[in-house]
Hints:
By secondary structure, the protein is an all-alpha fold. 80% of the residues lie in helices and 0% in strands.
Amino acid sequence: MDNKQDFTKGNILIKMIQFMAPILGALILQAMYGAVDLLIVGQFGTTAGISGVSTGSNIINMVTFTISGLAMGVTVLIGRYLGENRQERIGKVIGGVICFFLATAIVLTVVLLVFARPAAMLMQAPEEALDLTVLYIRICGGGIVFVIAYNVISSIFRGLGNSRLPLLFVAIACVVNIVGDLVLVAGFHMNVAGAAIATILAQAVSVILSLVIIRRQKLPFTMTLQDIGFSHEVKKFLVLGAPLAFQELLTNLSFLALCAFINRIGLEASSGYGIGQKVQSFVMLIPSSIMQSMSSFVAQNVGAGLEERAKQAMKCGIGIGAGIGVFVFLLIFFRGNLVAGLFTDNEAVVIRAAEYLQGFAPEAVVTSILFSFYGYFNGHARSFFVMAQGLAQSLIVRLPMSYLMSIRPGVSLMWIGLAAPTSTVFGIILCLIYYQKINREKKPRHLAGLHNPD
Length: 454
């Protein structure tokens, strides 16, 4: 392995920052990617268009994040093989990945095209925005294969310890998306349809160019046509990724339910929440980059038998994330209206967005702590616990609190936004209990079946 991609040696903080920085850059561009759609529709489209993009992107994001959770199993498995110096297994892993995710893309395309309207109605999209929501879902659903391909390719390279190429891939997509939005929405006034077409076109261009770039890379493994198929490696990355995917699915379903609760309040609340969510996506950048970095970092060290180094990495991630999170918290709590005002000049929508952000603001700090635990557990192949506590968060805290706040007379979105950090604190408590439990065990649990010779 390249020394930069070997996490078992060297200064932990420096290694982590070197690996995390490109991941953070990629996530920033990805967040801009989504925000640009809403920003340009807000400036050159309609208020109904803002609601349509917001509600429709919630549904597409649910699919995307679920796939990302599944692909995290690929990241961890490849990282573990590298830590064990068993690179000869990686070709089979990627061959299985190609077959599995291609089949998944075909199924999801059909589902999104057929069930776009029932999904929009289930989300209680405002009447003025219903048809626009359906249109957004169908256009993005038609190109979901490119969305999946981007996420899978990026997960493979993060598993290899290379976070620079995923940054390049998303940079390409971001540039194409901005140009597409300006041409189709601002230029041709295509509103929601233009935003959706630009999104899928950008992902398609990114995937095609990424495949060209990959062919020029010197990779630490070999792969042949015989490796492509549903091998036993598929089961291994599914065992790791399925709980994470299920957790992402449940988390996003809870956010879909939250969106439905707010949609019932009215068009201004729906649009304000949509803008608040885009700002929220930027707030989550540091925690998300820490989790993705931590999963690869810990997986390599666990594979090499360096448990204490893995623990130190987790503590380092908590310190980095919480420290930065304090500044983000102060910004969106006290100046959320200025940030929301970048997306629209509709004062009522800005007020609603700022309300939501005030309640959500503490999440900037506490999620960094929670996601550091996630990365640590994922790297240990304990993704089932991550799924279980995510389910507990959603069902015990986030959903009940969001619903109760949404039915109060004269409801403020601030109280609905507060449900997120409240549920995160609950999750941190569960993680602390589990962390103490596994460290009292005499022997750490290893990934089932990973050491089998076949």
